[in-house]
Amino acid sequence: MRPFCLVVGVFLLLRWPALSVAWAPVARTITVDQHGGGDYWTVQSAVDAVPYGNSQWVRIYVKQGSYREKVTIPSQKGFILLQGDGSFNTDINFDGHGYGTDAPGIPITGRNRRNLTDISPTYTSATFRVNADNFVARNIAFKNTFNGGHPAVGVLIDGDKGAFYDCAFHGFQDTLCDLMGRHYFRRCLVEGGVDFIFGYGQSIYEDCTLVSNMPAWSQQPGWVTAHGRAGGRSAALVFKGGAITGSGRQYLGRAWNEQATVVFFQVNMAGIVVPQGWDKWTPGQDVSQVTFAEVGCSGPGSGTAGRVPWEKHMSYAEVQRFVDIRFIDDGWLSNQP
């Protein structure tokens, strides 16, 4: 049997070039322990210890515990791997909020994306901000614990080439700001009620669980996504496998601008999804260029008979350009630790 297994293994590597047996090495590990058993007591102090212009992977290992702090990874501090002891055991939390705004932050451009403080309090409410390229997080949770009717971001990422594995994102409004860049989420949990995944990102969410915490008594459904696409970018939020579950009622998404693109592929949808499926940002919005699509989904919320007439109908062949890992990956995923 061994020769057969070897042949199959070689075939798989040739058939799917994204698979790799080689991962980037970690040059250094920094340990964070709020009880004093590590190199630093806080996550931010560990980030501060990474040199500007860093070009080698540094692991920041966060021991079990709940760390109440706001953390920012500056754009000059790439190649950081943040690793916890499991998303049920390790979390970073804060209760920042964007008073004075009732929707995701105002649109951004390439010129002002690094000056988020000057744009909207939504963006600066984030518990955890990643402005750097080349970032990985594993086995850790991020929480915005603010309990109110305003944007309160758990994680904001606007660096390119960011990946999250077995992580959890908890909040209510604007939980995960997938702002800019190419990102990959695998086996993650994202919880929220209103626009809880939003931004201009070009991202694949594979085998992720999207949990609505919209109150069951609410007359207004929430929105799982709020996506926009800037200019000629190939941005989209792509959900591949996984599930939508939880309480209340939810639209799959609303169009943040006229080029919004969201695809659900083979996702199991609970009955919380409203029959219309999708929503406009404003009643008079032009949605002729919006690409909202569902392909091969299942579950009581997946019926498309009542969907809005402007939903795009894609074949399995047409959806492949979104769900293929090459939509976001030109080799950078296999160059991460």
From TrEMBL:
<dbReference type="InterPro" id="IPR011050">
    <property type="entry name" value="Pectin_lyase_fold/virulence"/>
</dbReference>
<feature type="signal peptide">
    <location>
        <begin position="1"/>
        <end position="20"/>
    </location>
</feature>
<keyword id="KW-0134">Cell wall</keyword>
<comment type="similarity">
    <text>Belongs to the pectinesterase family.</text>
</comment>
<keyword id="KW-0732">Signal</keyword>
<comment type="pathway">
    <text>Glycan metabolism; pectin degradation; 2-dehydro-3-deoxy-D-gluconate from pectin: step 1/5.</text>
</comment>
<dbReference type="GO" id="GO:0045490">
    <property type="term" value="P:pectin catabolic process"/>
</dbReference>
<dbReference type="InterPro" id="IPR018040">
    <property type="entry name" value="Pectinesterase_Tyr_AS"/>
</dbReference>
<keyword id="KW-0063">Aspartyl esterase</keyword>
<feature type="domain" description="Pectinesterase catalytic">
    <location>
        <begin position="30"/>
        <end position="329"/>
    </location>
</feature>
<keyword id="KW-0378">Hydrolase</keyword>
<dbReference type="GO" id="GO:0042545">
    <property type="term" value="P:cell wall modification"/>
</dbReference>
<dbReference type="InterPro" id="IPR000070">
    <property type="entry name" value="Pectinesterase_cat"/>
</dbReference>
<dbReference type="GO" id="GO:0030599">
    <property type="term" value="F:pectinesterase activity"/>
</dbReference>
<keyword id="KW-0964">Secreted</keyword>
<comment type="function">
    <text>Acts in the modification of cell walls via demethylesterification of cell wall pectin.</text>
</comment>
<dbReference type="InterPro" id="IPR012334">
    <property type="entry name" value="Pectin_lyas_fold"/>
</dbReference>
<dbReference type="Pfam" id="PF01095">
    <property type="entry name" value="Pectinesterase"/>
</dbReference>
<keyword id="KW-0961">Cell wall biogenesis/degradation</keyword>
<protein>
    <recommendedName>
        <fullName>Pectinesterase</fullName>
        <ecNumber>3.1.1.11</ecNumber>
    </recommendedName>
</protein>
